[in-house]
Write the structure tokens for this entry.
Amino acid sequence: MKNYKNVFIFDHPLIKHKIAILRDKKTGMKEFRELVEEITTVMTYESMRDVELVPVRVETPLETTTQYKVPEESVAIVPILRAGLGMVNGVHKVFPTARVGHIGMYRDEQTMLPQEYYCKLPDGIEKKTVFLVDPMLATGGSMCDALDALVKRGCKKIKIMSIIAAPEGIAKVAERYPDIPVYVSTLDRGLNENCYILPGLGDAGDRLFGTK
């Protein structure tokens, strides 16, 4: 795969361990959901290395000192429905006060193209750092459409997080939005004829919510 300056693929042994369990078809819904949250939390820490901090005065038991904090109300989470919902709690563990918006997409089974059916975002989202999350980055169609929706509404600081990605999806997003960072825990081989990621882990939404 081509090297893109805005794509960051993690090579963390704990993530690899959790991905192995996540892929296993014998892993049940509860454990699957917990693993998605845990991986997302690790990814959130790593993806916020460049976060902007503001100085604050803190009084310790011994003296007053200048420390640094992430500004309140500076982060928002936008999951792509429905599988993206599984990553929200993972980000909330790092930023518990982050507001949450939702973008609804479904894939037309005939054309394999994404269709938007819902978009509800927090007020002032254009001033926040937005985590756009979806466990699977397959063709990149849904992610690009979700990015279009955020950019149209004035969002300037966006970070994409996906747990598993195909090279085709990364290429589409990275080339269309070269200035938006894409954080992926694992890069898989590619897509099958039905546009599912291989080896992948099946349908993330179905496994998160027990719909199959």
